[in-house]
């Protein structure tokens, strides 16, 4: 009986698989874009400088993390979130079609615009629709943790398998394949509308969550934001600000992993780790793949853990404590880099150090990142639900704009001292957030 009660609606899987298709395409393009732009024409690329390639790739990623706030506003007041999701999928598919035919940077910029706008309509709104499928707010943490596994299934397939088709099939064919993934995604979501019930049929302002007190539904829809509403919004904004710090550190960890401990032919690669297993050289993209597979495995595990903790008298760990744990773990990953550099001496670090770094980053990510949508769905006033769901990904936009400057600065100081300080700051900030979480939690429930 307990199992039947906890069974997830089919609509949950409709939404979760929607993320799988989209993330497979996105992470494939994210990984290949800079490489393709910098590859010479004979190799099927555009033949531009690696600096130009890195810049365009960074803008591509950043643009997809700022537009959801605008897409969320549209879904709050103007359009059905379901329509936004389908339109977003189609726009992203069209964008990748432009890259399929691109022979100059002009069409790459067109692709970036289409994918950014499409992501804005798609990302937060699909999470919002999924959240509305659950009557009990205590089920949301579990649901969004499992949804995150579906997200990372897409990422894993893209970086582990799809990118390897570049050799036999060429870059442009892969971009066409990514477009096809999005069109399949749109068809999948469109033909399964009945499974979503009433969730997302109307703008979020009118589509109240079932676990909101029914006596307050109509009142909440029309009246201005209360003091309690504003406190809850402040709590969401504060969690988002802390997540900016987390993502700066998280993305930063890729830089020394690839360019200090990584392998490659360029002058920036220092090859301070051995990426060989016997005679087989581990592909660089497999660092991304390990992150994805760890998140896939941890999704159901952490979902069960949050459900178990929620049954305690004191309830689950708060969002602020989970953010603190994530920050501490990514700080420890930097400490591991420093230890690896000390242990290697004048030689190369063992590949196991890279595995430990990936595990720490991934566990830190899984503890708090999937739950941002859950936290917002639980506490955001309905009339700004889409807007605040769109605010959550904007943290990654700011992080991608900031971390390159931090990395450039750290290249000017000794590796062990520079990254040792970063590790210490991250761990101290995490501990500080943990001890302040009690006061911050009161904002989320509207207490004085």
Explain this structure to me?
Helix 3 (50-66) runs antiparallel to helix 16, helix 5 (81-100) packs antiparallel against helix 6 (105-131) and helix 6 crosses helix 16. A hairpin with a 2-residue loop joins strand 1 and strand 2 (280-281). The protein is mainly alpha-helical and 448 residues long. The protein has a single domain (9-206, 216-444), classed as Up-down Bundle (Growth Hormone, Chain: A). The protein is 74% helix and 1% strand. A two-stranded antiparallel ribbon has the order 1-2. Mean pLDDT is 84; it is low at 1-5 and 210-215. It is built from 17 helices and two strands.
Outline of this structure?
With 448 residues, the protein is mostly helical.
Set out the fold topology.
Layout: H1 2-6, H2 10-38, H3 50-66, H4 68-77, H5 81-100, H6 105-131, H7 140-160, H8 166-169, H9 171-191, H10 214-222, H11 227-260, E1 276-277, E2 280-281, H12 285-310, H13 319-344, H14 351-368, H15 371-379, H16 385-410, H17 415-444
Antiparallel strand pairs: 1-2
Helix pairs in contact: 2-3, 2-6, 2-7, 2-9, 3-6, 3-16, 4-6, 4-16, 5-6, 5-9, 6-16, 7-12, 7-15, 11-13, 11-15, 11-16, 11-17, 12-14, 13-14, 13-17, 15-16
């Amino acid at each position: 009986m307990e199992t039947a009660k906890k069974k997830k609606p089919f609509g949950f899987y409709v939404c979760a698989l929607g993320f799988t298709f989209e993330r497979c395409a996105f992470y494939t393009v994210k990984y290949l874009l800079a490489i393709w732009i910098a590859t010479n024409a004979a190799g099927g690329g555009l033949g531009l400088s690696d600096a130009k390639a890195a810049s365009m790739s960074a803008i591509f990623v950043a643009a997809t993390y700022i537009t959801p706030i605008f897409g969320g506003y549209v879904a709050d007041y103007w359009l059905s979130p379901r329509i936004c999701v389908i339109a977003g999928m189609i726009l992203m598919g069209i964008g990748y079609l432009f890259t399929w035919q691109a022979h100059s940077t002009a069409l790459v910029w067109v692709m970036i615009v289409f994918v950014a706008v499409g992501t804005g309509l798609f990302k937060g709104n699909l999470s919002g629709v999924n959240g509305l499928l659950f009557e009990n707010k205590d089920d949301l943490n579990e649901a969004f943790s499992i949804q995150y596994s579906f997200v990372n299934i897409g990422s894993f397939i893209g970086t582990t398998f799809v990118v390897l088709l570049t050799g036999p099939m060429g870059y442009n064919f892969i971009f066409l394949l990514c477009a096809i993934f999005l069109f399949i995604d749109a068809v999948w979501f469109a033909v399964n509308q009945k499974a979503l019930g009433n969730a997302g049929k109307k703008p979020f302002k009118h589509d109240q969550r079932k676990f909101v007190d029914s006596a307050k539904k109509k009142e909440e829809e029309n009246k201005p934001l209360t003091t309690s509403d504003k406190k809850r919004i402040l709590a969401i904004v504060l969690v988002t600000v802390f997540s900016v710090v987390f993502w700066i550190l998280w993305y930063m960890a890729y830089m020394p992993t690839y360019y200090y401990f990584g392998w490659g032919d360029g002058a920036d690669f220092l090859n301070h780790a051995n990426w060989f297993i016997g005679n087989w050289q581990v592909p660089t993209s497999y660092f991304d793949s390990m992150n994805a597979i760890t998140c896939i495995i941890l999704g159901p595990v952490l979902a069960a853990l949050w459900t178990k903790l929620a049954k305690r008298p004191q309830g689950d760990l708060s969002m602020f404590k989970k953010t603190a744990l994530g920050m501490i773990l990514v700080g420890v990953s930097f400490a591991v880099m420093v230890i690896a550099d000390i242990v290697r001496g004048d030689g190369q670090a063992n590949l196991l150090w890279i595995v430990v770094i990936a595990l720490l980053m991934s566990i830190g990510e899984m503890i708090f990142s999937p739950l941002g949508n859950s936290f917002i769905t639980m506490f955001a006033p309905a009339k700004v639900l889409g807007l605040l769901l769109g605010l959550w990904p904007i943290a990654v936009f700011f992080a991608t704009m900031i971390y390159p400057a931090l990395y450039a600065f750290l290249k000017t100081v000794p590796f062990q001292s520079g990254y040792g300080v970063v590790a210490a700051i991250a761990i101290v900030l995490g501990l500080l957030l943990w001890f302040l979480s009690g006061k911050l939690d009161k904002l989320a429930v509207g207490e004085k």
